[in-house]
Specification:
Blueprint lengths: L10 H12 E5 L5 E5 L10 E5 L5 H15 L6 E3 L5 H11 L3 E5 L17 E6 L5 E5 H12 L2
Parallel strand pairs: 3-4, 3-5
Antiparallel strand pairs: 1-2, 5-6, 6-7
């Protein structure tokens, strides 16, 4: 008859169960496989990634850094500035770590289209991790958009 009981319900088992449930492999229409960590936005370690479309244009990268600081100051959680590769690879990297939203700063954000045309200034592209849908928002609407989707 045992006289020592050792329960094995630690935090690590709960976290492992959470990660196993959130881990998803999806096949895209192109036939490519996408790995996504579909954590609830409230549980994601990084809430938003701010990604400049190109890293060799100082006006785009500076705008992205200012936007990152502005979003971080909202207190919604961790906001990460990402400029380590091309935009597609950045999206995939953040899909894999569970970042629910990616905000892209591009030529249109500055009010200048890549083709030289004048566009609506101070708009960014917001990409949803789960649906991969992208919408264009004015930066003043971004706070409300994120607060609504990241609320507890």
């Amino acid at each position: 008859m045992p006289y020592v009981i050792e329960p094995s319900a630690g935090v690590d088992r709960g976290v492992l169960a959470l990660l196993a449930e959130a881990f998803t492999r999806e096949e895209l229409p192109s036939g490519e496989e996408r790995i996504v960590l579909k954590l609830k936005p409230q549980l994601a370690p990084i809430k938003v990634a701010v990604i400049p479309l190109v890293k060799n244009r100082p006006e785009i990268t500076e705008y992205a850094k200012r936007l990152k600081a502005r979003l971080q100051a909202l207190g919604l959680g961790r906001v990460l500035y990402e400029d380590t590769g091309n935009i597609g690879k950045a999206y995939r990297r953040h899909d894999e770590v569970g970042t629910p939203f990616a905000v892209t700063v591009d030529y249109d954000t500055l009010g200048q289209g890549k083709d030289g045309t004048t566009k609506l200034k101070d708009t960014v592209t917001v990409r949803d991790r789960d649906t991969m849908e992208q919408i264009r928002l004015h930066v003043d609407e971004l706070e409300g958009f994120l607060r609504e989707r990241l609320r507890w």
